[in-house]
Design goal:
mainly alpha
């Protein structure tokens, strides 16, 4: 569920790029990357629920 905002922003950015709105597309892609980095940092700083 955490990946949905980055996927939606990427899809919207691609749609805007095909329509010719380059600035909106770049802003959407940057926001998607930031959302993905936020989810990645949240999951990578979690403790593992398994015994190694």
């Amino acid at each position: 569920m955490e990946m949905i905002p980055s996927l939606v922003l990427t899809l919207f950015g691609t749609w805007m790029a095909t329509r010719g709105s380059r600035l909106i597309a770049i802003v959407c892609w940057v926001l998607a990357i930031l959302a993905m980095l936020g989810v990645m940092s949240y999951h990578m700083s979690d403790t593992l629920p398994v015994d190694l």
